[in-house]
Structure to design on (247 residues):
């Protein structure tokens, strides 16, 4: 994983064209479930059925603290998708292709392109990305292969306490991007007012939780297939856990 130095301004150019409701944007993230790490899908407190979407998870990777790949996998177990952490990765990451969706005037979403839904008010192809930090890093987190959109901490060490500032950088195709919409708490405040990444792709926010933190960035890009959808939506999460006080 390499450090990045160039800037992409795609979001600043296209943001006004494709601005939409953040409340509609589902994502993926990692969280502990019954002492095991699970890959989840949903928005806010809505933890939806990811097992039936397992075929849409196109990549699952893991890395040690220096960024070296280690073996991992994600497998259905009952109603959860559990991550193999037996090699003790410091970072785990996943990609989901959520397909093409169209919204009709009645507010309903259909898993079809606008070529099949002539009354659609908007159609989009959505991709979801998730990165979870499990252990301290020994080098700054860089771009992960395949993650078109990614949120990375600028510093190697995470802040230890709730309310501490954390400086993040949003990467699009491995390069810093301006104008990405960053939500500081995707789980507890998914409808919160986003902060836009700056000219160097960075944003500074305060850590929201003394526990699980799920930060999300959303970026709209031009469509690969304009006849089927109006935009490509990328949503990337960065999750980590701050330790609570000893019992």
């Amino acid at each position: 994983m390499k450090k990045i130095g160039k800037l992409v301004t795609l979001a600043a150019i296209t943001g006004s064209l494709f601005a939409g409701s953040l409340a509609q944007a589902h994502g993926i993230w990692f969280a502990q479930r019954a002492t095991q790490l699970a890959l989840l899908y949903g928005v806010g407190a809505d933890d939806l059925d990811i097992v039936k979407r397992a075929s849409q998870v196109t990549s699952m990777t893991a890395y040690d603290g220096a960024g070296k790949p280690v073996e991992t996998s994600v497998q259905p177990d009952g109603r959860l998708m559990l991550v193999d952490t037996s090699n003790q990765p410091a970072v785990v990451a996943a990609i989901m292709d959520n397909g093409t969706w169209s919204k009709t005037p009645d507010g309903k979403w259909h898993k079809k392109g606008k070529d099949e839904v002539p009354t659609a008010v908007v159609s989009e192809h959505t991709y979801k990305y998730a990165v979870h930090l499990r252990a301290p890093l020994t080098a700054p987190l860089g771009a992960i292969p395949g993650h078109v959109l990614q949120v990375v901490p600028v510093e190697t060490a995470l802040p230890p306490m709730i309310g501490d500032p954390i400086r993040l950088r949003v990467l699009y195709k491995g390069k810093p991007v301006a104008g990405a919409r960053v939500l500081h708490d995707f789980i507890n405040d998914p409808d919160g007012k986003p902060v836009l990444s700056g000219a160097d792709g960075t944003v500074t926010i305060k850590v929201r939780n003394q526990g699980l933190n799920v930060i999300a960035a959303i970026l709209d890009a031009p469509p690969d297939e304009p006849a089927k959808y109006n935009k490509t939506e990328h949503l990337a999460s960065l999750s980590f856990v701050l330790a609570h006080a000893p019992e």
Remarks:
- The two ends are 37 Å apart (CA to CA).
